[in-house]
Amino acid sequence: MDNVLVDFVSAFKHLTEKQKNEFKNNMDDIDGIFSLMEPIPKAIESYNKIIDHFDVYILSTSPWDNDSAWTDKIKWVKKYIPKAYKNLILSHNKHLNVGDYIIDDRTANGVDKFSGEHIHFGTEGMENWDKVLEYLFRKENIIL
């Protein structure tokens, strides 16, 4: 979710300087921070294109030291992708889920052990949603 559908950094403009200084090494521990984030460009549109061809789940982790994170992530999905909130899975063990693909910006939390293909969002060739859709649809012989 974070840095794939959700622009984590977009929340920073809503924080006080005190919050930024106090949590500078752990910004994800700021209470309510996940409710302040905006979507990554083209993320919502891309999600809506993907669900026409795939069984899609949103798989995300949440920091243990932020009591509002889990709730805020559910609220974010309800706000920006309302039809997807029942397809949200919050887990620190992404490899326990089964699928053909996982689109993630990192290899942490079990992504490196996921049984399907990791589409490494934000890396060379997968820099944005246009590139991810192009790759995924070409690989599956789906015409955009």
Automatic annotation (TrEMBL):
<dbReference type="Pfam" id="PF06941">
    <property type="entry name" value="NT5C"/>
</dbReference>
<comment type="similarity">
    <text>Belongs to the 5'(3')-deoxyribonucleotidase family.</text>
</comment>
<dbReference type="GO" id="GO:0009223">
    <property type="term" value="P:pyrimidine deoxyribonucleotide catabolic process"/>
</dbReference>
<dbReference type="InterPro" id="IPR010708">
    <property type="entry name" value="5'(3')-deoxyribonucleotidase"/>
</dbReference>
<protein>
    <submittedName>
        <fullName>5' nucleotidase, deoxy (Pyrimidine), type C protein (NT5C)</fullName>
    </submittedName>
</protein>
<dbReference type="InterPro" id="IPR036412">
    <property type="entry name" value="HAD-like_sf"/>
</dbReference>
<dbReference type="InterPro" id="IPR023214">
    <property type="entry name" value="HAD_sf"/>
</dbReference>
<dbReference type="GO" id="GO:0008253">
    <property type="term" value="F:5'-nucleotidase activity"/>
</dbReference>
